[in-house]
Input
Amino acid sequence: MAVVPASVDSIRRAAEILRRGGLVAFPTETVYGLGADALAPAACARIFEVKRRPRFDPLIVHVGDVAALDAVCDFRDARAQRLAAAFWPGPLTLVVPKTAALHDIVTSGLPTVAVRVPEHPVARALLAESRTPIAAPSANPFGYISPTLAIHVERQLGSAVELVLDGGACTLGVESTIVDVSGEHATLLRPGALATERIEALIGELRRPEHSATPRAPGQLPSHYAPRTPLFVVEPGGFDVRAGERAGLLAFAEPDGALAARCAVVEVLSRARDPNEAAVNLFAALHRLDGALLDVIYAERVPSAGLGAAIHDRLERAAAARKS
Output
């Protein structure tokens, strides 16, 4: 694996790797993605192998603009068009009917595909240079903490990826919000970096999906985004550290001093109590805690308004890993 700063030359090199069926990790505004040519089934199959991702979990397809969607999906739905006009490029993924040109491996056999137009300049330059849609889930082993720095990709995927474009820290820090507009009712499949309230202000209330063993989009499985260290979601100040326990604390804001003193490591997501800042810091803080040789991580609940809902979703799924 080569980790190189994003530049005109390295993006050109990355595009060539994609065109010949290789894998490239690259930054988006949300997290780093593990990309393959979305129209090359063998390349997309390698994504599942490298991530150890179950084949029933579909991929997100990234395109440079709405005009490029014709190759992968039917984008005539009026709700999809309104949301795209308002929020693309940006951290919104829409689930719409797919075209026959897109192989079933990308969509896990579903008749729909998850698509988005990313905002990050490196992602957009790579899409323009490669001249193909790019299928790209997060660039990490399946179920583990998503990467927001190039070094996270390097540590987690080793030599399995031909090239990592280093574009610095991701500016939003949590994955895109996913909305399914393929049916009669628009459905929120995953809360993310675009607040649900902003979407509902444009197209009305979103339904929440019924539980299903077969995901319709990434990030729907009960256990996901998890550190290897056991993680428990707790009320702020509503827990205690056991004698002899090397504990880490993931606090939303400045924690109680006495409680923090009993923890070996403390990570504060936002001293200003800003959910946007907390979202940006979430995965990087979890990576640091997971590397601190702890017995347990206690993660405080965050207010659920705005991006707090996305943070809460990620923490609950991370905690679910200890139950599986």
Summary: The CA atoms of residues 61 and 115 lie 5 Å apart.
